[in-house]
């Protein structure tokens, strides 16, 4: 692991985002009707994303275990405008006060939530794709604030 011993503890935030795209109209209609056989896709996947962020150092080699002070995951069902059959946007916000950032925890949260959507909908859509997973905001630490140009939070709209 990289030593963070000499770094000061500061408030740090990272937000990651990504999208699950559907390959047919069935998953979106079932999610909206809360009729997926495995349960409430958006609620279960939100919890999966939170749990994934908390397990990041167990999954990513050499990742520091960090005492997270906040993990929030937002899932938004997307109509079939931009994507032919719709999808689900996933956003994870992770915060801590510490010596290293939480970008990996935010990315892991997005992937955990996205994989949960795929798992819960795979019976009705074999062709789903998870795309565009990336860090969109990072605050705190020596490098200060960075934001993806043009990014707007689904959670803030």
Q: Would you tell me the overall average pLDDT?
A: 94
Rg calculated over all Cα atoms: 16 Å
Low-pLDDT parts are none
User: CATH first level: which class?
Assistant: Alpha Beta
What does this structure look like?
- The protein has helices at residues 26-32, 41-54, 56-59, 103-121, and strands at residues 10-21, 68-78, 87-98, 129-139, 146-147.
- The protein has a five-stranded antiparallel beta sheet, covered by helices on one side.
- The termini are far apart.
- It has one domain: 2-Layer Sandwich (Alpha-Beta Plaits).
- A hairpin with an 8-residue loop joins strand 2 and strand 3.
- The mean pLDDT is 94.
- The protein is α+β, with helices and mostly antiparallel strands.
- It is elongated, with a radius of gyration of 16 Å.
- It is built from four helices and five strands, in the order βαααββαββ.
Briefly characterize the structure.
The chain has 157 residues and is of the alpha+beta class. It has 4 helices and 5 strands, in the order E-H-H-H-E-E-H-E-E.
Secondary structure layout plus pairing:
Blueprint: E1 10-21, H1 26-32, H2 41-54, H3 56-59, E2 68-78, E3 87-98, H4 103-121, E4 129-139, E5 146-147
Antiparallel strand pairs: 1-3, 1-4, 2-3, 4-5
Defining traits:
5-stranded antiparallel sheet; Alpha-Beta Plaits; alpha+beta; MoCo_biosynth_MoaA/MoaC; 157 residues; 4 helices
């Amino acid at each position: 692991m990289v030593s963070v011993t000499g770094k000061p503890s500061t408030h740090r935030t990272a937000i990651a985002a990504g999208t699950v795209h559907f390959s047919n109209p069935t998953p979106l209609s079932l999610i909206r009707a809360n009729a997926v056989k495995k349960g409430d896709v958006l609620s279960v996947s939100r919890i999966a994303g939170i749990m994934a962020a908390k397990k990041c150092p167990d999954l990513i080699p050499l990742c520091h275990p960090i005492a997270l002070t906040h993990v929030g995951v937002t899932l938004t069902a997307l109509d079939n405008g931009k994507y032919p059959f719709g999808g689900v946007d996933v956003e994870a916000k992770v915060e801590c006060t510490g010596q290293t950032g939480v970008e990996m925890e935010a990315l892991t949260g997005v992937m955990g939530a996205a994989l949960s959507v795929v798992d819960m909908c795979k019976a009705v859509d074999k062709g789903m794709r998870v795309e565009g997973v990336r860090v969109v905001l990072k605050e705190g630490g020596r490098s200060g604030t960075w934001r993806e140009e043009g990014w707007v939070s689904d959670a803030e709209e």
